[in-house]
Amino acid sequence: MARFKPYDYAQTQLIPVSFERQILPGSFEYALVTLIDQELDLSIFDCQYRNEDNGCRAYDPAIFLKIVLLAYSRGITSSRRMAQLCQENVLFMAVSAHTSPHFTTLADFISRSHEQIADLFVQVLLVCDAMGLIGRNMFAIDGCKIPGNASKKWSGTHADLRRKKNRLNRAARKILQTHRDSDQAHQELSDRDLKAYSDLRNQSRKIKEFLKNTQDKPGRRIKTIQSNITDNESAKMKGNRGVIQGYIGVAAVDDKHQVIIAADAFGQSTEHGLLEPMIEQAHQNLKSDRKTIQRFKLTADSGFHSAATIQYLHDQEIDAYVADPEFRRRDQRFKKAKKHYRPHLSKPKSDKFKREDFKVNLDKQYCICPAGKKMVRNMENKYTENMLLINFRAKPSDCDPCIYRKRCLQTPNQRTPRNFAVVKAKFGKSEAPLIKAMKAKIDSEAGRSIYSHRLGTVEPVFGNITSALGLNHFSLRGKAKVTGQWRLMALLHNIFKIQRYGMT
To answer: Does residue 263 contact residue 490 with C-beta atoms inside 8 Å?
Structure first.
């Protein structure tokens, strides 16, 4: 019969630990502690404290920074988990010098320090520059859409939210009416019905209070864009995994060692108009003159392309390579790309009505739907960039009882009647000379070669932040605080560059 060494958990062992020896040279912890203690000016945090003459001593901001950045480097963003690690993990004990701040103290420090984080980001960037980690040859700008700490179900225009409030009120009244009509009318509501009624009323009051204190958010292409009750500075946007409620984290990255030279978060659905503020921020962060920025080559994808942006780049004399939406289609290398795609499973043929099933009379300004009902024009002529459109709408009294609803509408439960847009006229699309020049520049052999470096410069940075460092959502609310959290991750990314390439 086999024999084994005995073991017993009912014993105590005192293990001597030298915190200083836990922080080994060459490690991330060593780079973090050395940078914070010897390079960064933390007097910017003094304005948060008023205990010179009375009150107890506060935790040193250096300890907070070390704990938070070490936790973020491990993919931990929960302040409760940070506080727990300071009591259980030897490495966190060593970095924090065996202090154990409460999790609410850590959370409050992260939340209130967005202005100081912006200053620290610049200080770390200048350390990278002094170590020669910034090549000043080419930098790429791109955005990453990240969910915020808000639910998209609480999004909508003020008109949408009013309708939602009315539906909640009707549902609450229905619970009471059902109770009155039952045999239990003389009794109180059950716990389940009481909770449902209370939740509905609270949600309705929440919407009412929001509508009272805010206005509709104006949009660029449409009159209003959707607000959000939880975080009104966030935006609903299309991401790789569907529609999310969040922010676009934008970064400008140098191509030598992928150091982030500018970072900001924006609560809008697209990247239009974001190139200009990022260039200005990069210029300020590097403490450089205009001629230095003009020597950089700048690359950005088609999400940043617009006439105003191209005009700005021309006025600032920046050597930029900004792709337009048709860039790939003009590239001969992608001409036969579709033949390599895997064929999708054939879908069953749809029995939906086609455009030719609608009979339009532009002279008399009406349209006949497939059911034979008359649709009238419901708006003035609408001009787009190169078209003139006329829209016809069916009457609700004709559309609601129609037997062809499944074949005519997108969904059978659609509440609005059928709309049908017709192109009345097309105009020749004229391009500005600067846009033509940008297309010619990026289509050239040299332009395509320079632009091809964009993907390998900025995309790995987003992969590192979202996957390796684990920032899959923002935990704070409001643009200022979210920008602080985004810059904190960018600052952490740059510290890794200092550890790997600067401290040799």
So the answer is: yes
